[in-house]
Amino acid sequence: MLSNTCKYAIRAIIYLAINKGDEKKIGIKEISKELDIPTPFLGKILQSLAKHKLLTSTKGPHGGFGFARPVNDISLYDIVTIIDGRDLFENCLIGMQPCKSNEEDSLRCPVHDQFSEIRAKLLDLFKNETIGNIVSKMDGKLDFFKL
């Protein structure tokens, strides 16, 4: 459902939330090493999140990434829509173009009604689950990072 790029983005933001401390920036190399994500690829992901004002980015010897807003104000929905777009929440599950959330019976795919309910629940989950909430539920279980 989520691209690997999106999963990397979520893991990186959780890592930052757990390790940032007050006003601390974390360098790309540290994040890359700890999460086993190629540095150039992770750099592009984090720059995209900074461009969309989820993160801040500072260059230089004491540079790195931090948060542009509180982690309790960053939802999974924010991250997913920046990285993967809104397809998960809008497009047909089985890829039928005319379906695409269409309410006209003749244009709906065979699984439209069932998936509409699931999509609504997913949308609610992703909009209401924040990074701060996820971190509080992890309770120091950092072994989740090495997937």
Observed structural traits:
147 residues, mainly alpha, Arc Repressor Mutant, subunit A, two-stranded antiparallel ribbon, 7 helices, elongated
Structure description:
- Strand 1 and strand 2 form a beta hairpin.
- Helix 1 (4-19) packs across helix 3 (39-51), helix 1 (4-19) crosses helix 4 and helix 1 (4-19) crosses helix 7 (131-138).
- Strands 1-2 form a two-stranded antiparallel ribbon.
- It has 7 helices and 2 strands, in the order H-H-H-E-E-H-H-H-H.
- It is mainly alpha-helical.
- The longest helix is centred in the last third of the chain and has 17 residues, at 112-128.
- It has one domain: Orthogonal Bundle (Arc Repressor Mutant, subunit A), CATH 1.10.10.
Supply the CATH architecture. Orthogonal Bundle
Number of separate domains: 1
Mean pLDDT rating:
88
Helix percent reads: 40-55%
CATH topological fold name = Arc Repressor Mutant, subunit A
CATH top level label: Mainly Alpha
Taking pLDDT < 50 over at least 5 consecutive residues as the criterion, the unreliable ranges are: none
Radius of gyration: 18 Å
Protein name: BadM/Rrf2 family transcriptional regulator
GO molecular function: DNA-binding transcription factor activity
Organism: Breznakibacter xylanolyticus
